[in-house]
Amino acid sequence: MPKLPGCYQYFDENNEIIYIGKAKNLFNRVNSYFVGNKKDSPKLQVMVPQIKKIECIVVNSEIEALILENELIKKHKPKYNILLKDDKKFPYFLITKEDYPRIQVVRKANKNALKGKYYGPYTDIRAMHATLELINKIFPIKKCKTPKYKSRPCLYYDIGQCAGPCQNKISKEDYKNIIKNAELFLSGKRKELIKTLKKEMDKASKNFEYEKALLYRNSIQDIEKTLEKQNIVFESTNKDYDYISIINSSNLICICILQVRQGRLISKKDFSFSQILSDIESFDEIIQSAIREYYIMLNDEELPSKIILENTFEELDIYKKWLSLRLNKEVQIIKATTKKDKEILSLAHKNAQYNLEQAKLKELSHIQNEYNEVGSYIQEKLKLSKFPHTIECYDISHIQGTNTVASGVYFENGQPKKSKYRKYKLKTLQKGEVDDFKSMREILSRRFKRIKQGQIEAPDLIIIDGGKGQLSSVIEIMKEFELNLNIVSLAKREEEVFLPNKKEPVILAQNSAALHLFQRIRDEAHRFAITFHRQLRSKSMLK
Questions:
Q1: How sure is the predictor about 278, in pLDDT bands with cuts at 50, 70 and 90?
Q2: Angle between helices 172-186 and 125-138 (to 10 degrees)
Q3: What angle do CA 248, 348, 350 make, to 5 degrees?
Q4: pLDDT at 79
Q5: What's the angle, vertex CA 216, arms to CA 210 and CA 220, rounded to 5?
Q6: The model's pTM
Q7: Tell me: the pLDDT tens digits for 214-244?
Q8: May I ask the CATH architecture of the domain 6-76?
Q9: d(C-alpha 120, C-alpha 297), whole Å
Q10: Domain with CATH 3.30.420.340 in the chain
Q11: What's the whole-number mean pLDDT along residues 84-105?
Q12: pLDDT at residue 279 in the model
């Protein structure tokens, strides 16, 4: 690998790109993936063994590498790169590149994207349409691509929402000024826009163009009303800041960006996405991906002069240089230090937390809807007395009778609930004794006793890892405690499900979601038991 700046691409055995990264020194960065201890990074443990080929693209600088990395990630969407939710789903305002430009609502990210200036993305569709309605009221911009009538303007001209360029009712220069003002409005520079409109109003008044002056006055009043509704954050009007808060929980990442323009809080951008292994992704990787992908979507004039974060990150300087070059002046990326910055960042954090809760509810609702179908199938197929909302599964682990342990895992609506997992040390076995039946009877006796005494709630279904013999021995114990629970066993060899007092097993379809769920629960119990067994074995070896 060259010791130069550029991008590297990792391919798997199917010649598909699985990861794309950038580096100041390609040799050092790529080498770091294959040396040293990777135990602390589950992502690298999973990804690195899959790398079968590496390609690199050399560029002139880190900034070029950063931009190229973003383009490659957008194009190939590698599974181990963090991606914001596809920006094709978010609308933008487009000021078209025409003699008399129009404002359109479009999706920016596509091969046939129209030429012009883009403003957005708008994650709140309702707010976007409200903004468009206000723009149409304030700025008489052309609505039609081609004239509706040959000899007269359309209805929009009559109601004052179009300047009538199709019928030469306005000069190109005057229309150009209207578009400039609309751009100021969309960029959040509304105080600057008011100053411009006041100058135009005074000019029209001096030239005795009172109707034109009246239109400018009405526009100024409308803009001032919107400014009154916005929160004042800073008294100074030269503060163009962005506040970014990130929350990473389970497999969900939520990002909130609060935009302060000219000292006022004008907008909130929310992004949420799921990511494989996202719960162990570093803050550095998440924040770098968020900054790179979000700000590359914006026009240069939309960029803030300062970005305030909860924590700084490595390679911060390269992002500052990239944004500073685009804005043509210094862009700072800093950790919040002042009381005011911390207050606004706290507000961004609250919004991100709310979005996380909403995303979880949405995901839980989706999971619940899916599980309702699977659970109903399991209840019908296994003749269960109740719907299997809660399922427990038990497994035994030992090596030639040493350190025999058991595990109990707990699933609720098809999802693991790890706070209710249980580990068991066997008390009734003699040293060196191997008896899985006796072990299973012991741990379930302890479990049934607690259910009988009302200390814990009985699950809707219990799965035993084993065959018909294991199930029969457990049923005997259950009867001793005078309980009537749904218990089945899952035999590994043929993945057969045995029911109490039934000679023939139930065979679940090989590709069915029900069998996949049973296998997942059984494998989780097995994993949990082996993990506990290894811990005990390690302690024994140390002794």
A1: very low
A2: 150
A3: 70
A4: 82
A5: 140
A6: 0.50
A7: 877 877 876 666 555 555 566 566 788 999 9
A8: 3-Layer(aba) Sandwich (3.40)
A9: 8
A10: 382-542
A11: 76
A12: 38
- Which token pair is 25? 């020194």
Closest CA to 467 of 438, 421, 499, 441: 499
Q: Give the CB-side neighbour count of residue 429, counting CA atoms within 13 A.
A: 25
- Nearest-10 crossing angle of helices 283-295, 62-76: 90
How far apart (Å, rounded) are the C-alpha atoms in residues 351 and 344? 11
Give the pLDDT confidence of 145-154 residue by residue, as tens digits.
Answer: 888 887 888 8
How many CB atoms within 10 Å of residue 366? 10
Q: At what angle do helices 436-452 and 468-480 cross, to 10 degrees?
A: 30
Q: What token pair was written down for 119?
A: 């403003």
Q: What's the rounded Cα separation, in Å, for the pair 8 and 22?
A: 6
pLDDT at 540: 55
Cβ–Cβ under 8 Å, residues 319 and 307: no
Query: Left, alpha or beta for 429 (phi > 0: left; psi -120 to 50: alpha)?
Result: beta
Instruction: Report which of 494, 273, 534 is spatially closest to residue 398, judged by C-alpha positions.
Output: 534
Q: Which pairs with CB-CB distance under 8 Å and at least 24 residues apart come from 155-161?
A: 160/215, 161/136, 161/137
CATH 3.40.1440.10 boundaries in the chain: 6-76
Question: What is the pLDDT of the chain when averaged over all its residues?
Answer: 81
Q: In this predicted structure, what is the pLDDT of residue 391?
A: 94
Please tell me the distance from the alpha carbon of residue 78 to that of residue 17, in angstroms, as a whole number: 6
Q: pLDDT higher for 221 or 112?
A: 221
DSSP 481: T
pLDDT for position 449: 92
Q: Locate 5 and state its tokens.
A: 């700046």
3-state secondary structure 64-92: HHHHHHHHHHHHHCCCCCCCCCCHHHCEE
Superfamily of domain 382-542 in the CATH hierarchy: UvrC, RNAse H endonuclease domain (3.30.420.340)
pLDDT at residue 86 greater than cutoff 50: no
Query: CA neighbours within 13 Å on the CB side: how many for 331?
Result: 26
Q: Give the chain's length.
A: 543
Q: How many CB atoms lie within 10 A of CB 125?
A: 11
* Second CATH level (architecture) for the domain 241-358: 2-Layer Sandwich (3.30)
pLDDT band at 280 (very low <50, low <70, confident <90, very high): very low
- For residue 309, how far is the Cα from the chain centroid? 18
Residue located via tokens 């790179």: 292
Per DSSP, helices labelled H in 187-253 are 190-206, 210-229
How many Å is the maximal CA-CA distance in the chain?
107
